[in-house]
Design brief:
Strand content: 15-25%
Helix content: 25-40%
Strand order of the largest sheet: 8-14-13-12-9-10-11
Distance between the termini: 40 Å
């Protein structure tokens, strides 16, 4: 339980509440050299505990509901994209150019799932897709990293843990909290009406503007939608989400497109009534639209602003794009999980899913704090800081030998019809007494809802 207590402390939670968590340990769930199962369990546990805490406060309960965490549910949810079926079709995973490549002096990891990232990668290398392998084999990993990033693409040299520890970005990361938390203003406490009926929905009636993409941010907002929030995801019309990714992370939400340059009035209307704004772009990328934390707080006092990034809002890599797979490669995880012949990967995109649950937990705790003493809040989570927590701070189980085994995802999968077709999907792992067991609505078609609150 130490990992759960530490993560709960990072969120500013009452230490006594950590005892409300019970865990079902399962051998074989998220097996890895690193303590992935323990980290994933802790992220889900504190998210569920933050939900139960907020629900108890809103409902006037004298006791915070107990939280239940099952390693089987967590392992299934953290690999949700692998279990998704759409009319029986499995999703497309990584694109052909998103992989490890040998270089003249080691390895590099590229990411090119989106068409514009693919084009920039090929442009930086000056080759066609069929020529990438040969071109990379003639260059050093660091040279590829810098030249591809300079062209707006994504490539990271595979580093050992020791090499990463000596990097200036790692030094900045080490000085930061797992979850960064700050007060934005002195707005008065905002009373939240008790949620009606059952199940207990801690976020009922709250409006969440979701300006996130890919996995981690959408996992956070998918979790807030599970808990009753009205989540409206807004994407730029020229950057559609990958269809399978949307199907996996779009549960409970509505999806709209909006050009932030031309649709300022619609954006202003959304912000004027929002309770939470979640962003997951590079730090500073949205500031020109008036979406910095400070500008948002000035416009909407009492707002909770949640920011997620790959490399953090600090250090020499603060403006770089990044994804889970790239953070694993840069921070030594790929070497730790690999073999002498080839780098490896974690058994799940655990940095994405873990960070998403931590961000949702931070939002829920910020709402609880705001209801007590007022003030808007800023919460930040970075994949690279979650990676440091996993590699340096999380402790492995010592008493799992007699635990039940994880025999597959079956008990934690469900099926339902949706506007996208018949879906098989992973059930949410966040569970507490009296709470929801599934999302109210399946994902709809990307970008087809109106950019306004329900």
């Amino acid at each position: 339980m130490r990992n759960i207590a530490d993560a709960w402390s990072a969120l500013g939670g009452d230490p006594a509440l950590a005892g409300r968590v019970t865990v079902t340990t399962r051998r074989g769930a998220l097996d890895a050299r690193l303590p992935v199962r323990e980290a994933a369990r802790a992220c889900v546990a504190v998210c569920a505990l933050a939900a139960a805490e907020l629900g108890a406060r809103r409902a006037g309960l004298t006791r915070v509901p107990g939280v239940r965490v099952d390693d089987g549910a967590v392992a299934t949810a953290f690999t949700s994209e692998r279990h998704l079926l759409l009319d029986g079709r499995a999703p497309v995973d990584f694109a052909p150019l998103s992989r490890f490549w040998r270089t003249a002096d080691g390895w590099v990891r590229t990411h090119a799932n989106f068409p514009h990232h693919r084009e920039r990668l090929l442009s930086a290398l000056g080759v066609t897709q069929d020529e990438v392998e040969a071109a990379l084999a003639e260059r050093s990993a660091r040279e590829v990293e810098e030249s591809v990033y300079a062209a707006g693409g994504l490539a990271v040299a595979v580093r050992t843990p020791g090499e990463w520890a000596g990097h200036p970005q790692a030094a900045e990361v080490a000085r930061r909290a797992l979850v960064e938390r700050a007060r934005l203003d002195t707005a008065p406490a905002r009373r939240l009406a008790p949620p009606a009926g059952t199940p207990l929905l801690p976020a009922a009636g709250l409006r969440v503007l979701d300006l996130s993409r890919v996995v981690a941010g959408p996992v956070a907002t998918r979790t807030l939608a599970l808990l009753g929030a009205d989540v409206l995801r807004v994407d730029p019309p020229h950057l559609p989400e990958l269809p399978d990714q949307h199907a996996d992370t779009g549960f409970g939400k509505r999806s709209a497109v909006l050009d932030l340059r031309a649709g300022r009035r619609a954006l202003d209307d959304l912000l004027a009534a929002a309770d939470v704004v979640v962003t997951a772009y590079r730090p500073g990328a949205l500031d020109r639209f008036g979406l910095s934390a400070e500008a948002l707080a000035e416009r909407r006092p009492g707002l909770v602003v949640a920011q997620l990034s790959a490399w953090g809002a600090y250090g020499p890599w603060r403006e770089r794009r990044g994804f889970d797979s790239l953070v694993q490669a840069a921070t030594g995880i790929a070497v730790t999980e690999g073999t002498p012949e080839r780098p490896g990967v974690l058994p799940a995109q655990a940095l994405d899913h873990g960070s998403g649950h931590l961000l949702a937990a931070a939002v829920l705790r910020a709402l609880t704090e705001r209801s007590c003493d007022g003030g808007g809040r800023l919460v930040r989570v970075a994949l690279v800081r979650t990676a440091r927590w996993l590699t340096e701070e999380v402790t492995a189980d010592t008493g799992a030998a007699g635990a039940a085994s994880y025999d597959g995802p079956g008990p934690w999968l469900a099926e339902r019809d949706s506007p996208l077709g018949r879906l098989r999907y992973a059930l949410p792992p966040v569970a507490f007494e009296g709470g929801p067991a599934d999302w109210v609505r399946p994902p709809g078609r990307w970008g087809t809802d109106e950019a306004r609150w329900a």
